[in-house]
Design goal:
single chain, Rossmann fold, seven-stranded parallel sheet, 247 residues, binds NADP nicotinamide-adenine-dinucleotide phosphate
Amino acid sequence: MAKTALITGASQGIGACIAKTLAADGFNIAIDCYSEREVENGGEAVAAACRELGVEAECFVADVSNFEACGELVKAVKARFGSIDALVNNAGITKDGLMVRMSEAQFDAVINVNLKGTFNMLRHVGAVMMRQRGGRIVNISSVAGVYGNAGQINYSASKAGVIGMTKTVAKELGSRGVTCNAVAPGFVRTPMTDVLEEDYKAEILKQISLGRLGEPEDIANAVAFLVSDKASYITGQVLVVSGGMVM
Ligand code: NAP
């Protein structure tokens, strides 16, 4: 029976690319979108691209910061596909600003989606994977969570927290055959980074050993490895995918 992968925030950017990459590897794909608008504006096209690769794919709607909505999402995906073999916690937002100017609302918004949203999904899918006695979880962190980043105290805290949760889940669920790892991207060209100033991107580029910005495929390929059988003895790790921007 084909395995099923559930990917959050998969209507665009890195998440959409992960969905298509895992579809190419034979996973049925459950695409979580933030709202019905995201289903129409991207999610349904991603699902169609996955189906063209010969697998089943469907969009679901859940705001990952809503605990109950995540529970309903997991129930619906399980009912539709029978199992959840891989979970990719990809949904994330930024609300940048220097620490001394950051509002409480900016801080809370990023923590609610990136950190609590990851917990919400882990909590519900973890229970399913424990019963299945197997599964693969990949949490999308960031180099900002490993090394910090000026202007991103909220984001770097959320992404560092994701690493803490990754290692905890690896310890708690390892005996049930569930692996949990984090991928920490460097600078990747997506709608999230398209809005940044060209000067800033040029400065970043100077720091990248491989001499180019990352593409969504660079991250999706790392995720595809970590959810594959080839990674069955790897858990609790943080794989930095940054073209050598940080080492
Ligand atoms: P993106 O293009 O902005 O995609 C993020 C996706 O998450 C969007 O589809 C977004 O939907 C969705 N999302 C946001 N809030 C959500 C919520 N509450 N519930 C469900 N979905 C939600 O960003 P990306 O660059 O592909 O980033 C993907 C992941 O990689 C994020 O976790 C990000 O932090 C991480 N990352 C990115 C980079 C980079 O350089 N791009 C570097 C390091 C880490 P909407 O469109 O409705 O907002």
